Structures are given as C-alpha cells and as structure tokens.
Amino acid sequence: MREPEEELKALEAQGLRRHLRRLASPQDATIELTDSGACLNFSSNDYLGLANSDALKSAFQRHIETYGAGSGASRLICGTMAPHLELEEKMASLKRSEAALTFSSGFATATGILPALCGKDDYLILDKLCHASLIDGARLSGVTMRIYPHNDLSKLRDHLLWATSKATDQSRIVIVTESVFSMDGDRAPLAEIVTLKEEFDALLLLDEAHAFGTIGPQGRGLAAELQLESRVDLQMGTFSKAVGLSGGYVCASRALIDLLINRARSFIYSTAPPPALAATISDALDLITGDEGTRRREALWKNIHLFSPDAESAIFPQVMGENDAALHASQVLLEEGFLVPAIRYPTVPRGTARLRFTLSASHRQEDVTALKNALARLLTDC
Ligand SMILES: *Cc1c(COP(=O)(O)O)cnc(C)c1O
User: Fold this and answer.
1) What are the structural domains of the chain?
2) Given a cut of 90, is residue 361 above it in pLDDT?
3) Would the pLDDT of 326 be above 90?
4) Is 166 a known active-site residue?
5) Would the pLDDT of 382 be above 80?
6) Considering the entire predicted model, what is its pTM?
7) CA distance 51 to 65
8) Separation of 169 CA from ligand 1 center, angstroms?
9) Residue 263: pLDDT over 90
10) Catalytic residue chosen out of the listed positions 84, 159, 210, 363
11) Which of 28, 88, 184, 207 is catalytic?
C-alpha cells in the first residue's frame, strides 16, 4: 500500500507541498504571523475590510444573545430560524430574483446546485478557469460536460451546437461561468454569454464570488452592473469574501429554489449555519449596499487603480512560471513585510505558477505603493 509520507515527498520534490500558515492576529490589512511577525496582508479576499470590523463584530455578539450559538439541525429538520429566511428574502431582493437559498459555504453551494440540476442526460458547458467547487459539482452530477477555453465565445457556441444536437426535449443545457475569475482577476464577457444562452435556450449559472460587494451598483455584482440580472437563471456567490463572514447563496426563480431545497444534498444533509451568522450577514448586506459600502468600494477602487489603472477587479496575478520561482518570489516579499501567496497547480495550470495579490479597502494608499515598488524590484532582480 502507498505510504502518505511517500506522496508528501513527491509533492515536496515538485514544489507542490502546501503548509498551513498560522496567524496570531485577526484577519485584517495588517496581520501578525506566528512565524514571521507583522506584515501587510495582500492575500485575503476581505475586499471591503469587513472581517474584523467593529460593526460586524458587535452585530455578531448581539445576535448570539438573541438567537443562541448553534442551529442544532439541518434546515429541513428544525434548523430554519427567522434570520435564515430574512437573509434569503434580502438576497432575492438584492439580486432582483424571485427567491434565494443560502448554504454553509460557496463551495457547498456549487456542489449542491449542479447535481440537483443536472444528470447524465443533461449537458454542462464550463469555462476552463472555473473554480474547483464548480468542477467538483459538475463531476458529482454525472452530467455530460464540455470545457471551453477561457472566455472563448466561439468555442462556447460550438459546444452549444453540439449539446443542442444531442439534447432531448427533457435535457437541460447549462452554461457555467464566473463573473470575475479568481486566479486571473479578469471578467467574463457576460452580455455575450447571456445572448448565446438565450439563442440556444440554455440555463446560465453565474458565480459572482469575487464580484459581489466589489462591482456594480451597491456592490450587487457584474450582472447588476450590466443590467442582466433578470436574464441570468442562477446567480450564486459567497458571503466569505467581500461580505467578510462565511456562507454561500444562490438566487433564482421560485421553482428552481424549491427544487434545490428538495434535491441539493449539501443543503439537505448539512446543519444550518448558526442563526446569529445569518443575521450578521443580513447586517453586512445592509452595510455593503448603503453609504458605508459605497465609501469602502470607493477606497477599494482607488487602491486598485493606483496599483494598475485598467484593472478589472481587486485580483492581480503575476505569473512566474515554475513553482520554485513563485515560491521564491513569495518568500522575498514576505521578508520585506508583504504577505502574497504563491499559487500553484492544481489551482492554476502547470507552468503558470504565480503570485496573486488581492487589494482591500482597508489598505492605505502608501501600502499599495510600497507593494508596487517591492514587486518592481523583485521583477528586475529575477
Ligand atoms: C471562493 C470561491 C468559492 C467558494 O466560496 P467559499 O464560501 O469560500 O466556500 C466558490 N466559487 C468561487 C469562484 C470562489 O472564488
């Protein structure tokens, strides 16, 4: 039998072994690492600086007093409380959809939706750079799947033609894309994808994980920015990034949401998130869609444009190529006081190991300039 030590050695030899890094402080723009001390944090997805905000900390404490600490059961048994339903109503209204459902994470949302929606007689067409949770959801479903090169509309059309030629009148054809891609930071050509999905009578599942809170009117995402919400069948995302907490959501028609309540296994067979968390997420949504959210988004986009004038999101890849090059660059930056992770296979394709910077509203402008200078030094040195 294969020994785990041998597998770990093989990972180590390829520069692919991963280790946990311990934080000795809360999540913030400046953090304390147990091993390397204080540093500027350019690696979190806390885009609006809410994870450690006074507003959410005190809301969470208050809601625990009202609703208790745990939920005790899955949503369909006796775990559904007022805050869960109020949060879902709020999400549906924010996304201009009929209904919404929440999950314990974005990962659980993706792996719940796709097997509930598709089976072997259905056709799923997915962007090559889609997140692992979407790929795993697709695999779990047993659906017939085709992958198109990143943002390649003509290949997407070819796959739609193929799916249409195979489909029966009962088959679903589902297109899956993200609005902002998590490891590249670019956006999907959403308007064109919506036009195609209508031409072929397909469904569209859009993952707004990195767009929700950061893009569009009131931070409502890319579909909102392009006024396409009513034409996207399933809008999903997470409360773990710009919202600063944790959990996932999907917004869709009442019938699709009811189907998910009956079929999505990660919803049915998992304990409901703590009601105090659901209530705190609702407060965070009020904050994000209100004046405070607007101020934080302005600060975020000021930082983004300072770092790179024509950036499309708060995510910046610096492709280094080999794993060792990315690991070395990450280590050099850490020694200068910047936490920037090296992202490697299988998160990104082999040979495209990279540094991935993420900016937040809570970074000061001088922090962003310092990072920019450190990166320029690093790239001239190597
Ligand atoms: C982060 C992410 C998820 C998972 O969300 P969690 O709430 O962290 O589980 C899903 N999809 C995409 C595109 C993501 O970037």
Assistant:
1) 4-52+292-381 (3.90.1150.10), 54-289 (3.40.640.10)
2) yes
3) yes
4) no
5) no
6) 0.97
7) 20
8) 33
9) yes
10) 210
11) 207
By the 10 Å C-beta count (0-12 exposed, 13-18 middle, 19+ buried), 5 is classed as exposed
C-alpha of residue 209 to centroid of ligand 1, in Å? 6
Instruction: With a cut of 80, say whether residue 331 has pLDDT above it.
Output: yes
Banded model confidence at residue 381, pLDDT cuts 50, 70, 90? confident
Strand arrangement of the beta sheet that strand 234-238 belongs to: 99-103, 248-252, 234-238, 203-207, 173-178, 123-127, 144-148
Rounded Cα–Cα distance for residues 207 and 236 (Å): 5
Size of the chain, expressed as the number of residues it contains: 382
Q: Clarify whether 197 is annotated catalytic.
A: no
Which H or E run contains 127?
strand 123-127
Dihedral over Cα of 82, 253, 93, 210: its sign:
positive
Q: Is 121 a catalytic residue?
A: no
Q: Are 207 and 213 in contact (CB under 8 A)?
A: no
Residue range 48-57: average pLDDT? 98
Residue with tokens 């407060």, as numbered in its chain: 283
Question: Nearest residue CA, atom 14 of ligand 1?
Answer: 209
Instruction: Read off the tokens for 248.
Output: 């996932």
15, pLDDT greater than 90: no
What is the identity of the amino acid at 127? D
Instruction: Please give the average per-residue pLDDT across 186-190, as a whole number.
Output: 98
pLDDT digits (tens, 9 = 90+) for 73-122: 999 999 999 999 999 999 999 999 999 999 999 999 999 999 999 999 99
Give 299-336 as a DSSP string.
HHHHHHHHH-TT-SSSEEEEEEESHHHHHHHHHHHHHT
> Rounded mean pLDDT of 163-177?
97
Q: What are phi and psi of 44, to 5 degrees?
A: -95, 170
Pocket residues: Cβ below 6 A from ligand 1: 105-107, 110, 131, 133, 178, 182, 207, 209-210, 238, 240, 248
Q: Which of 44, 45, 104, 360 is catalytic?
A: 45
